Amino acid sequence: MSIGGARQMTSKLAKQAVRSGMTAIVATMLALALAPSGAAAAACPLVIVKCGCTISSSGNYTLNGPNPMLLTSTEGTTCVHIKVSNVTLTGGPTLQGPGSKSSTIGVYIDIFAKKVTLQSVQAMDFGQGILIDGPNATVQQATTSFNNKGTVVNGAYTLLIQQSSQRDDAAGIQINASAKNFGMMSGKAVGATGAGIVLNGVSGAFLNSIMADDDASFGIWLKDASNNLITGFEAEDNGVAGVYLGCNADGPNGKSSCATGSNGNTLVGPVYASPPSVVSYTGALLLQQSYGIAVGKGNLDNHFLIIMGMGNIVDDALDENPNCGSNRWLVNDLATSSPAKNTTYTCLN
Predict the structure, then answer these.
(1) Under the phi-then-psi rule, with left for phi > 0, alpha for psi from -120 to 50, and beta for the rest, what region is 59?
(2) Is residue 113 part of a domain?
């Protein structure tokens, strides 16, 4: 190569190097500009004294800060975020968020966290008090109040024991379709401005000894939920119905409203003892429960056994399917019903 050609090649390579360097600088500047503002949440110590931390190591953790422990705007959207498996978090002070209309979470068990146990956790004034996405979670004696949704379960094999929702908004306890093999023992949802306990598309859940009283729409709502067992329940003084099987947010209206239907569910009195499950209106000051149990049109193959209905404003039981369709009502104590009592041996009997 001639000396002139070598000079031209050197100049070309130098220009390419400059362009490449500028490109890297620009890319770095763009990455910095697009990165989320604020530092990542700090790791939670074993004794947690403030909101805004992440549990990223297995172990036993305890809430022991001021009462309440407040989530501030500088701490992100979650008070305690559990990202790892085999964690036990024991409550102490109440976790308090900035309000139910915010997109905040009190305790979040994320999808990668397995076998997490929450014990005596209290969460109030969050968008979601407790959000469970990870599988095999156990929540014992937790309380939510004044959240938009108290406890939301998406993780499979979740077990709630003595779970309490008091005056949460849209839902006290909501179980979604991905929560396979869900179980709840001795739970209650009282005073929700929406529904107390919502089975939302879920299948195969078992709920025993639960209470859903004074909720603004439904005490227990089976919304496109099938093949679930609910036993030993009380649903009194709710706004529309103690128990509703259907998908119309306003309750039964004579029309099919579910994508697939709430089918194959069984609601029954206590398995080992009496008295029967109760759906009633007893004279609440603000709410007047129209129906004890209401089954919307198109919801079929359900079973209702050993249930007592009394004092409800319209009917103790309503089945919108002609002659109850394939639903089976047996050994119930109902003062009023539609269709009329004992339409057939298995319809409102």
Answers:
(1) left
(2) yes
